[in-house]
Input
Amino acid sequence: METVPAEEVRIVVRRNGPYRLYGLATIVDAEGNEYARPEGEWVHLCRCGRSGTKPYCDGTHKHVGFVAESAVPPHSQTD
Output
């Protein structure tokens, strides 16, 4: 498992799964209301659009056959 300093925010794309958000980021809705954040070093954010706990992942992607690109295309990598 990756360790990230608390002051750094990092989003890791999981293969055919959610985004894993590390760091102390605040997540707000379209109206500016802050979502309660689960305890822990990281949270999973829904990427399939089917979670019942959006914006957080509830594992639904495993049951609906969610498949998505999970790697950076060669032309958009940073050096």
About this structure: The longest helix spans residues 61-64. The mean pLDDT is 89. DSSP finds one helix and three strands in the chain. Residues 72 and 79 are 12 Å apart (CA to CA).
